[in-house]
Structures
1.
Amino acid sequence: MQLNVLVLPGDGIGTEVTAEAVRVLEHVAKKWNHGLKLTDGLLGGIAMHKTGVPMPDETSKLAMAADATLLGAVGLPEFDNVAPEKRPERGLLGLRKALGVYANLRPVRAYEALIDSSPLKNDLVRGTDMIIVRELTGGIYYGTPRGIVGEGDEERGTNTMTYSRAEIRRVTRMAFQLARKRRKKVTSVDKSNVLETSQLWRKVVTEVSAEFPDVELDHLLVDNCAMQLVLNPRRFDVVVMENMFGDILSDEGAVLAGSIGMLPSASIGDQKASGAWVGLYEPVHGSAPDIAGQNKANPLGAIGSVAAMLEYSFGLIEEAAAVTGAMEEVLNSGKVTADLRPSGPPASTVEVGQAVCAAIG
Ligand code: IPM
Ligand code: MG
């Protein structure tokens, strides 16, 4: 099969973890005889430096033309105080919107080998296996009106959380379809005791659930969900929520997986006629400028994102399973980066990438 992949390493540790993810992708392509065409592009702070905008038109064109996009991370401290439209993060939001990838799948698994890396008690995290489905192209991240106007005490910042029925319905369907292939349970998260957006959310999710009588549905308020995630994480199978709630709760989920460096994500939109999905694949973590350039970032979130790409965008189930199996083998071997608190000396980013390739064989 021919795999045309756009690579956007981005900023900070994004470049380092993406290099290892690409190493694994090249290894898989070679082993299973797939043609691989990699194209590099600019997004985020590096795009600001080279072109003056965080998402050059060229990048969105390349992303539209590719079968799938692999992204590192965006964000640099030097852009903290620039105008909102010049922030590296805006580039990422623009790319998600341009690609129409409205469902962001963030699996959270407690690997047995990492059970001691979580600050939570072993018995509590053991067996955790959930997917957070975060709505990705709507809600308060994109709603208008937005901005800062006025002066002095009257200076005012505004953002708008808004969802249409159609936007809620499509991401909810995605969550139910995923649940069908898993433990058949969907938890929908909202703040319907206060927000109208959430009242519509809950109504539409309940309506959609009628199409999936074999899948159980429950609803949790977002504040309670934040607590349940650390009190009883095994109760969750597929958890669906709006954009900002998903951003916040997926970082909380990272604590269950031992380190945020472990979490992959797949952002997908509608299925193409071929059955493949338009996909954007990125680790959940950010650009971590504090450890950038030191060859110590954990590349497993990025490598797990390659596994997700192989599965969702290319339907290569065997190859995807080989990558996740190899990741698990490397975890069990103890050859892991410092964030996972290994008992011996920590491995480097590059060493972990090489070890995953060796484990694939
Ligand atoms: C994430 C990140 C992004 C988001 C930032 C970098 C814009 O935190 O993917 O979780 O908020 O979506
Ligand atoms: Mg986030």
Note: The mean pLDDT is 96.
2.
Amino acid sequence: MPRSLTCPLMQVLVLNGPNLNMLGEREPEVYGSTTLADIAARLAGLAAELGVTLRFEQRNGEGELVDLVQEARSGDGLVLNPAAYGHYGYALRDAVAAAGIPCIEVHISNVYAREAFRHTSVIAPVAAGYICGCGVFGYELALRAVVHRIQER
Ligand code: CA2
């Protein structure tokens, strides 16, 4: 039976880290010309299709991101582009590990084709999955992946 007939809608937080508010405005050769608002709009359409209540946020500070991950514990899943914090943000990693909900880490660029410091993720070991290098389409893949994980539980 479809989940919508039996349970409340799944709640997923899509959380974006520092500087991603500048998406589409600078460095289009690396990140493309799509803005964060464009991504939010695309995901809203997909969320409706998948039966998901979506919250889409961006914060620059690691503490603010930690606060939102802690709030997400009352929901079902997390899609996280931690931006540079993904490479060294242990407080954010601890929050994701403690959240007890599946998290899919997403990066727009192929971090493995870039500087060596981007080749490490401190989040990936505590995430359910990791997507990078698929451009902004990675967010749609990540939303589908986290929904799949939630339904498996
Ligand atoms: O590829 C990604 O999604 C990243 O998470 C983006 C981060 C970077 O530090 C990670 O290594 C990979 C950077 C976000 C900054 O985004 C900007 C967008 C437009 C202009 C300037 C920065």
Note: Residues 19-20, 22-23, 26-27, 31, 81, 83-84, 107-109, 111, 118 surround CA2 (CB under 6 Å).
